[in-house]
Design a protein that fits this description.
Chain B: Residues 1-26 are annotated as: Disordered. Chain B: This is Xanthine dehydrogenase. Chain B: One of its GO terms (molecular function) is iron ion binding. Chain B: It comes from Prauserella flavalba. Chain B: Keywords: Molybdenum, Oxidoreductase. The complex is a heterodimer. Chain A is α+β, with helices and mostly antiparallel strands. Chain A contains twelve helices and twelve strands. Chain A has helices at 12-19, 34-39, 74-79, 81-86, 88-95, 100-105, 108-112, 165-171, 189-192, 273-279, 286-296, 308-326; strands at residues 5-7, 25-28, 47-50, 59-62, 65-69, 175-180, 183-188, 211-218, 225-231, 242-251, 254-263, 270-271. In chain A, strand 10 and strand 11 form a beta hairpin. In chain A, helix 5 packs antiparallel against helix 8, helix 10 packs antiparallel against helix 11 (286-296) and helix 11 (286-296) packs across helix 12 (308-326). The longest helix of chain A has 19 residues, at 308-326. Chain B is globular and about 80 Å long. Chain B has three domains: 4-27 and 439-583, 2-Layer Sandwich (Aldehyde Oxidoreductase, domain 4); 33-132 and 184-234 and 239-272, Aldehyde Oxidoreductase, domain 3 (Alpha-Beta Complex); 279-437 and 588-733, Aldehyde Oxidoreductase, domain 4 (2-Layer Sandwich), CATH 3.30.365. Chain B is built from 16 helices and 28 strands. In chain B, the strands form six sheets. Chain B has a seven-stranded mixed beta sheet. In chain B, a hairpin with a 2-residue loop joins strand 10 (188-194) and strand 11. Chain B is α+β, with helices and mostly antiparallel strands. Chain A binds chain B through residues 1-2, 41, 117, 119-120, 123, 125-126, 139, 142-144, 146-147, 231, 233-238, 241, 308, 311-312, 315-316, 318-319, and chain B through 47, 64-66, 114, 116-117, 120-121, 123, 267, 422, 609-612, 614, 649-650, 654, 656-659, 661, 663-666, 668-669, 671, 673-674, 676-677, 730-732, 735. The structure holds flavin-adenine dinucleotide and iron/sulfur cluster. Residues 26-34, 36, 51, 70, 97-98, 102, 105-107, 109-111, 113-114, 162-165, 211-212, 239 of chain A line the site of flavin-adenine dinucleotide (FAD).
């Protein structure tokens, strides 16, 4: 039987020491990704460092931002009064994700690092998967790929980053706080993830053994309206086909600021900067929304199963821009 | 005595008698059983869909901790294929040779001391393959086909002439995907040999069939095999066959001389225990200008395993659905490198009903006739093929009551004419004529000295309420309160009863229970015939009825006696009677035995930009003959309709077109409806007791599913003007 070592340090230095950057070691938070992949035989660590006892839980106000400890659960963050009042897009993205049981276990740090749902990746019986076995090919590009990505992908890998809340957080310019053997650093979330590119096995810039300690979420100005729309086949408990996190600052009939994240489409949580550019200093309305949506999906790379997502993503964004712009400020 | 005729048409909603045991975790499901000293199995499955095994290296697995044995085609002797069953052939024997016929085929069974050890060692089995390009598609020119597989192809009149004479014709092709039965309970087998005696706890819907199969395969008398399935975590047809993994577990237990337990994993449930096969159907309809059907042609093709059979006549049901002089139905199966299909709740009719009732909606539209009116003009008031009156048929009432409850008269005729914000709104309907099915059954009823009854047969309760309705029925027939009746089911040692499937068990076993209870009363009367101490002395069956824990004269309520008093006076600990039932024969009845009828009325909302489809209302009216228990029957219809919603909008087993691997074999990826997808459902029963059986029941287990997908597709058309002829209806088709 495959055995592994399990340790549960009580503070961050001990955790870092227990991990020590060893390639056969992995951190364990809520386990909803990590343990699933171990049961499926995709991950086979020799040692698990359980980080759930580290003092990295809770939500604190720091100036104009919220500092969210990496071990805060999805449910806890969604229930936070400031998040409820000032960051509806975050709250909605959280509550439309997974199920309540999962959200009670799943942590924010783990959510950002969740692995793709690609069923070819998650079945070691499939030989061709560049993400799992670099250089082996990609079985999904010729397969039924309805749940795959269209932005930041290539024939080497079309896997989707399926997090909902990360889509809202990239739109908000959240910052990830990291501690590692070399000390702390912080990385804007927009620079944290990397596109599939030529090395699909590399998903982010976190060093192996580094810990996410907190996520800093800038609060939106009082006047900003925001929301998250998730489009999927069934009403709940499903990943997004497409989604849009939108925050708009509208003043005197003009969009002063726009923040847009797209889900269900990217190899990483997708910040639609080009669409924001179109909207900035424009009056809200169907034509400009459509123009922004076109800009958002330029460069889409599709396979037969994902073709519909180009149009669906545009319509999702247009709908959410319309909805948010009509919300009373 | 008390007869079935005195039962109400719709029986009282007695709560499930097994509810408390189930909610308290006391009801034991197949995988809850353990045997002392048991070992655990784990399967290794093929990762190619077609070809040969060139080598199996089991050395690492055999050397792994706890491993007792690794069974492969190299060390398992040829096992005989199971026998012919009442539902067709048994699956081919497992591990026959080096050939691979589908992805996920079992290629080895690893047995170890613990499940974890077996699972880990199974990953160490190295299998070499020589792969060939698999046949996966209905249209693959290399595929062999089977025409008229069940001899059900039918023809009456002249369809071409009927079409030529029609003022309006429609013609369309409909496709349905593979669906997977997906009972929540993982299928499991626990096999224990004691010399030549074999006891098996199996996730089966048919204990007596598994017993016969195992006796045949392992060369022991049926009487030395006992198969138990007292509770099952659902089946939906997956439990209607003795699958290869069952045979393997029993074989391993015999070889290792210790009990072996094998529980499938969820992904294995997609390849090991059947599925509803994908298919394509072509329908042509013709009608006169006033909406009388003049021609129905229905051709169906479905996918079949390379070397196994499956009952899936998509088209056959269309021969009897409507009064129509010219009808042609043709069914064909296409052999491919896919896992074996199996009957899944409402087999064939689920798919056939989608095509026919969609086509009827298209015809109504072409005729500019109300779709309900079109159905009413074509109701088959007599059996359209036999020309005989039905034993019961309240289809017209289903339509009338459903239309009234749903508010059909307020529906605008024109598609895409209602909206609610972003949502386009539409309403539509479908009719259902479900076929009659019944198998013979035995049952036994016993009253013990303490005045309790034990009633049973080998049939099992798949979760539908068989324990409950038979408790109610027996209590009523024996004049006992339900608390004093205990049902024994799901044990092949009990009198042989048929499968829980085909909507036939309540009718078959219920009729046998009725017979057994009747005979048991006769036996009591026999006992007191010459008994001077009995107030019932000399009574004939028609003079008495069962009441208050015993028997009393119809003409004199004071002349009565309880069972316990009779048994005590005669020094008996119990009295038993065996009962039986046989299916009605149309020729003898002079009538055509009817299955259930029904009508579904559905409202959907479709997001005009995003294509999201939500079912917002569903009204279903069912003629199920006599309903023994309002509540369990309603639950059956609701469950069936939810299955229909799943089929319409979500369920889609996806096969990788290159490898033949099922690409979404988990509950995260294979979508079934969640609560939020299900609207409030309005279910009503109409009709009268059916005349084909003494009980007057007709099965209600499947009819609730049939036609729902068509009603939803029709409602999507009514909402949007877009006709979707391929299931599931997902938003991509509506963008
Ligand atoms: C059935 C199902 C449905 C789901 N649906 C959704 C959905 O709709 N939307 C959505 O957004 N998500 C969904 N998820 C994903 C879920 O949100 C993630 O699995 C979860 O957030 C991961 O958090 P965790 O604490 O369980 O992480 P773990 O599983 O413990 O860890 C995940 C990964 O992150 C690493 N890790 C965790 N914490 C840290 C840290 N602080 N520092 C460094 N590394 C760390 C671990 O080593 C591991 O590699 C679903 C999951 C499941 C199983
Ligand atoms: S899409 Fe990416 S994760 Fe999926 S099979 Fe291809 S390489 Fe692997």
């Amino acid at each position: 039987m495959r055995t592994f070592e399990y340790v549960r340090p009580l503070d961050v230095p001990d955790a870092l020491a227990a991990h020590a950057g060893d390639t056969a070691t992995a951190y364990l938070a809520g386990g909803t990704t990590q343990l699933d992949l171990m049961k499926d035989g995709v991950l086979e660590p020799a040692r698990l460092v359980d980080i759930t006892r580290l003092p990295m839980r809770g939500i604190f106000t720091e100036g104009t931002a919220l500092r969210v400890g990496a071990l805060t659960t999805m449910e806890e963050l969604a229930a936070d009064p400031t998040v409820e009042r000032r960051l509806p897009l975050v709250r909605e993205a959280l509550l439309l994700g997974a199920s309540v049981q999962l959200r009670n276990m799943a942590t924010i740090g783990g959510n950002l690092l969740q692995r793709t749902r690609c069923r070819y990746f998650r079945d070691p019986g499939v030989a061709a998967c560049n993400k799992r076995a670099p250089g082996s090919g990609c079985a999904a590009v010729t397969g039924p790929a309805r749940m795959h990505a269209i932005l930041g992908v290539s024939e080497r890998c079309i896997a989707l980053h399926a997090s909902d809340v990360a889509v809202a957080l990239v739109a908000l310019d959240a910052v990830v706080h990291v501690e590692g053997p070399e000390g702390d650093r912080s990385v804007p979330l927009t620079e944290f993830y990397v596109e599939a590119g030529t090395r699909p096995e590399v998903e982010h810039t976190l060093g192996h053994g580094e810990l996410i300690t907190a996520v800093e979420i800038p609060r939106l100005p009082e006047t900003t309206r925001s929301g998250y729309l998730k489009v999927r086949d069934r009403v709940s408990y499903e990943f997004a086909l497409t989604s849009a996190a939108v925050a708009l600052d509208i003043e005197n009939g003009m969009i002063r600021d726009a923040r847009i994240g797209l889900g269900g489409v990217g190899s990483k949580p997708w910040r639609a900067a080009a669409a924001e550019e179109v909207l900035r200093d424009a009056p809200p309305g169907p034509a400009v929304f459509r123009e922004a949506a076109e800009a958002a999906v330029t460069g889409a790379w599709t396979v037969p199963g994902t073709e519909f997502k180009v149009e669906l993503a545009k319509r999702t964004l247009v709908r959410q821009l319309t909805t948010v712009s009509e919300v009373a400020p | 005595m008390s007869t079935a005729r005195e039962l109400p048409v719709v029986g009282p909603a007695l709560d499930r008698v097994d509810g408390p045991a189930k909610t308290a975790g006391q009801a034991r499901y197949p995988s809850d059983f353990d045997a002392p000293g048991q070992a655990h199995g784990a399967l290794v499955q093929s990762t190619i869909a077609a070809g040969r095994i060139t080598g199996i290296d089991t050395s690492a697995a055999e050397a792994a901790p706890g491993v007792l044995a690794v069974f492969t085609h190299l060390n398992v002797p040829p096992l005989p294929r199971g026998p012919m069953t009442g539902l067709g052939v048994s699956p081919p024997a497992p591990l026959r040779d080096d050939r691979i016929l589908h992805h996920g085929q079992h290629v080895a069974l690893v047995v170890a001391e613990t499940r974890e050890q077996a699972t880990a060692a199974a990953r160490l089995v190295r299998v070499g393959y020589a792969s060939v390009e698999p046949v996966l598609d209905l249209d693959d020119p290399r595929a062999t086909t089977v025409d008229d597989p069940w001899g059900l192809d039918s023809e009456r009149g002249d369809v071409e002439a009927g079409l030529a004479a029609s003022a309006v014709r429609v013609e369309a092709t409909y496709t349905t995907p593979d669906n997977t039965n997906n009972p929540l309970g993982l299928f499991s087998t626990l096999a224990a040999w004691d010399g030549d005696r074999l006891t098996v706890h199996d996730a089966t819907q048919w204990p007596s069939m598994v017993r016969e199969t195992l006796a045949h395969v392992f060369g022991v008398p049926e009487t030395s095999v006992r198969v138990l399935s007292p509770y099952l975590g659902g089946g939906f047809g997956a439990g209607l066959r003795a699958w290869p993994h069952v045979i393997l577990a029993v074989h391993a237990a015999r070889e290792l001389r210790r009990p072996v337990k094998l529980v499938l994993t969820r992904p294995q449930m997609f390849t090991s225990v059947g599925h509803r096969p994908k298919g394509v159907q072509h329908v042509r309809l013709g009608a006169s200008a006033d909406g009388r059907l003049l021609a129905i042609e229905h051709r169906g093709r479905s996918l079949l395993a390379a070397e196994d059979d499956d009952y899936e006549p998509f088209a056959a049901g269309s021969a009897v659905a409507y009064a129509c002089p010219n009808v042609l139905t043709r069914d064909q199966q296409v052999r491919a490198n896919v896992p074996a299909p199996v009957s899944m709740r409402a087999p064939a009719h689920a798919q056939g009903g989608f095509a026919l009732e969609s086509a009827m909606d298209e015809l109504a539209q072409a005729l500019e006739l109300d779709p309900l009116e079109l159905r009413l003009r074509n109701v088959a008031d007599v059996h359209p093929a036999l020309g005989l009156p039905w034993t019961s048929n309240a289809l017209r009432e289903c339509y009338a009551v459903g239309a009234e409850r749903f508010g059909w008269s307020r529906r605008p005729a024109r598609p895409r004419s209602q909206r609610d914000g972003h949502w386009l709104v539409g309403q539509a309907m479908a009719g259902v004529s479900y076929p009659w099915y019944q198998a013979p059954s035995l049952a036994r009823a016993t009253v013990t000295a303490d005045g309790h009854a034990v009633v049973g047969g080998s049939g099992m309760d798949i979760g539908t309420g068989t324990y409950t309705v038979l408790t109610q029925l027996s209590a009523r027939l024996l004049g006992l309160p339900p608390e004093r009746v205990r049902l024994e089911l799901g044990d092949s040692d009990l009198p042989k009863a048929p499968q829980a499937g085909g909507s036939g068990l309540t009718g078959a076993l219920g009729s046998a229970v009725h017979d057994a209870c009747t005979k048991l009363l006769d036996a009591f009367l026999d006992l007191v015939r010459d008994d001077p101490a009995s107030p019932l002395r000399g009574s004939a069956p028609e003079d008495v009825l069962a009441a208050d824990g015993g028997i009393r004269r119809r003409d004199d309520a004071d002349r009565s006696e309880t069972y316990d008093a009779i048994l005590a006076r005669h020094g008996r600990r119990e009295l038993s009677a065996d009962g039986s039932s046989t299916p009605a024969r149309p020729a003898e009845l002079g009538m055509a035995p009817a299955g259930a009828f029904g009508a579904h009325f559905v409202e959907v909302k479709v997001d005009e930009d995003l294509g999201l489809v939500r079912v917002s209302r569903l009204t279903t009216v069912i003629d199920g003959g006599r309903i023994l228990n309002e509540k369990t029957a309603r639950s059956q219809i609701i469950g069936g309709a939810i299955g229909g919603i799943g089929m319409a909008l979500f369920e889609d087993t996806i096969t990788d077109p290159v490898s033949g691997r099922i690409a979404n074999a988990t509950f995260g990826d294979y979508l079934v409806p969640v609560h939020a997808d299900i609207p409030a459902m309005d279910v009503t029963f109409v009709g009268e007791p059916d005349r084909a059986s003494p009980l007057g029941t007709k099965g209600v287990g499947e009819v609730g599913l049939v036609g729902v997908a068509a009603a939803i597709a029709n409602a999507v058309h009514h909402a949007t003007g877009i006709r979707v002829r391929s299931l599931p209806i997902t938003l991509d088709a509506l963008l």
